[in-house]
């Protein structure tokens, strides 16, 4: 749902859905895939306040991010104009970096 709204150009609606998912108490589990979709929607919205709020909420929910979600997080900050935060997130990735030849 989040990705679909974002692809239709409804990034703010996508972010609102993502925030609703994070706020639900009825067993809805937000995983790395959902986090990546939410981060991508924030990147499409180009709204730094939404970016920071999404990052805060995902961290508070203790969502375990995978490489795709971490890359979406970096991309989100960069597209919203906070390149310094994007760089910090990139350097702080807890995953092993590999060189692909």
UniProtKB/TrEMBL annotation:
Q: Which residues form the signal peptide?
A: 1-27
Q: Name a Pfam family for this protein.
A: PPR
Q: Which UniProt keywords apply?
A: Repeat, Signal, Transit peptide
Under Gene3D superfamilies, the record lists: Tetratricopeptide repeat domain
Q: Tell me which InterPro entries the record gives.
A: PPR_At4g14850-like_plant (IPR046960), PPR_rpt (IPR002885), TPR-like_helical_dom_sf (IPR011990)
Each PPR repeat occupies one of these ranges, namely 66-100
One of this protein's GO BP terms? RNA modification
Question: GO MF terms on file?
Answer: RNA binding
Q: What is this protein called?
A: Pentatricopeptide repeat-containing protein
Query: Which organism's genome codes for this protein?
Result: Miscanthus lutarioriparius
Lineage of origin: Eukaryota, Viridiplantae, Streptophyta, Embryophyta, Tracheophyta
